């Protein structure tokens, strides 16, 4: 979270005049440097990158983080340069940050199909290519521990999320991009679909899995099976009581 500098409505200046020997005077306009942003005592000020920020350790969903920061008169931090990112890394290395991951003020915009900061500005493509960032259709993924499918479903729900509904080739490929970028350490993850006897394949939100989707990946009707994302073929089926890491998502 960072404090937002107040907008300056107009340039401030003062007149500096000199009286000449002829009696005439000449004046020039000197700009007045506006005062620096006043950084509250419970925030940290870094003058090198002009960043006034505070770290919130309480776990929240991204949207809740954004709302919380705005309620404090701040914003979810826009860390739009390597220098600003390095400030946080230095704090982490110094033991000032207790977690290894923090939300910052950017999200993928499905309408414009690009990444944007919370102030509405598009993120520089160069910035994105410098880090393993890819766009995905409104999916926020969380990578968790090894569990059986029912336990994984319960844990995702406890996070305010759901066992991931990867119901398109694009979403499946987005996870593959993360795997290829070494953001995922396992080759298989539980996702949010199971075969329900007498009903068929269902996603965790109660909707039926598209039969075309199932046939594209060679999924058959076997009671007690659940869907698994895999790097080799994107989707396979396995027993729901098999222990796997799992993917949670938040529909945004």
From TrEMBL:
SMART domains: CLECT. PROSITE patterns: C_TYPE_LECTIN_2. It comes from Magallana gigas (Pacific oyster). Residues 52-151 form the C-type lectin domain. Pfam families: Lectin_C. The keyword Protein biosynthesis does not apply. One of its GO terms (molecular function) is signaling receptor activity. InterPro entries: C-type_lectin-like, C-type_lectin-like/link_sf, CTDL_fold, KLR_subfamily_B. One of its GO terms (cellular component) is cell surface. This is C-type lectin domain-containing protein. The lineage of its organism: Eukaryota, Metazoa, Spiralia, Lophotrochozoa, Mollusca. Coiled coil: none annotated. The keyword Membrane applies. Keywords: Disulfide bond, Membrane, Transmembrane, Transmembrane helix.
């Amino acid at each position: 979270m960072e404090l937002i500098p107040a907008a300056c409505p107009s340039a401030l200046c003062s007149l500096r005049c000199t009286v000449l020997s002829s009696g005439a005077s000449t004046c020039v306009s000197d700009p007045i440097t506006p005062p620096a942003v006043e950084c509250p005592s419970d925030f940290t000020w870094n003058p090198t990158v002009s960043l006034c920020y505070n770290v919130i350790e309480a776990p929240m969903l991204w949207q809740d983080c954004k709302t919380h920061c705005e309620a404090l008169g701040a914003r979810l931090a826009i860390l739009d340069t390597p220098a600003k990112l390095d400030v946080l890394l230095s704090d982490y290395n110094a033991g000032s940050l207790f977690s290894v991951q923090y939300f910052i003020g950017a999200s993928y915009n499905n309408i414009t199909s690009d990444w944007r900061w919370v102030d509405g500005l598009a993120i520089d493509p160069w910035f994105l290519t410098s880090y393993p960032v890819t766009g995905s259709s409104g999916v926020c993924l969380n990578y968790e521990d090894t569990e059986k499918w029912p336990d994984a479903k319960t844990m995702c729900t406890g996070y305010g999320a759901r066992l991931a509904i990867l119901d398109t080739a694009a979403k499946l490929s987005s996870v593959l991009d993360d795997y290829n970028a070494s953001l995922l350490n396992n080759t298989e993850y539980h996702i949010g679909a199971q075969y329900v006897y007498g009903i068929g394949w269902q996603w965790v939100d109660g909707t039926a899995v598209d039969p075309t989707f199932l046939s594209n990946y060679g999924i058959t009707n076997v009671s007690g099976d659940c869907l698994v994302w895999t790097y080799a073929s994107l989707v396979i089926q396995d027993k729901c009581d098999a222990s796997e890491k799992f993917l949670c998502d938040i529909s945004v």
